[in-house]
What does this fold into?
Amino acid sequence: SQQGEEDPQALSIQEGENATMNCSYKTSINNLQWYRQNSGRGLVHLILIRSNEREKHSGRLRVTLDTSKKSSSLLITASRAADTASYFCVHLKETSGSRLTFGEGTQLTVNP
Amino acid sequence: DSGVTQTPKHLITATGQRVTLRCSPRSGDLSVYWYQQSLDQGLQFLIQYYNGEERAKGNILERFSAQQFPDLHSELNLSSLELGDSALYFCASSVGQLATNEKLFFGSGTQLSVL
It folds into this structure.
C-alpha cells in the first residue's frame, strides 16, 4: 500500500502560531500529496509535490520533500481557527497507481 | 464543492439489512474510489473502478460489492449489515488512474448508522 505515516498524531496551537506536521513513507514515489479533512466532511486536496521537487508553496502552506529520508513536512503559517482539521499525507508509488491508502492523519487544533 | 455527489447523506438501518450508496463522479473523471472511515479503523480504501472496470481492491468485505455504470456513476452495495459497518463512506474520483500529477476529489460522504 501507499500509506503515509503522519506525526504527530495530534497538535494543539494558538491562533497565529505555525503548525508543522511530518510524514514518512517507505517506498520510492512519484509524488506526495497532502489532504485536509474537516470534522465529518470529505477530504480536500491541499498540495502535491513531485519526487523531483524539494519545496512547494501554496498560500500559507509550505511543503518540503526529502526523498533521501523518505519524509515530507507540511507547514501552516499564521494559523487560524479555521485550520482546525485532520491532515493526511499520501504518496503515489512509482510502479503502480491506484491504491492510495491514507494514514491516521494529524489532528490539528487551533485555539482562538 | 468538489463536484463529486454522494447520496444519501445519512442512512439509518437495522442489522441484517442491505443498502445501496450512490456516487456521481466529477464530470470527465473516469475513476471512482470508495473509502470507509470509522473511528477505530481510520480511512480504509475499499475498491476502485476505472471506466466501468474494477481496477484495485482493498479491504472490502465479501458482504460488500460495487459497480460502475456506463454513465460512470458508481454504487456501493452493503448487505447483511452489522453494527460494525456503521461508518462514514466516501466516494472519490479522479480523471484517470492517478498518473503523476493527479489528485482525488472527495464527495461529502454517506453516514451509515446500523442499529
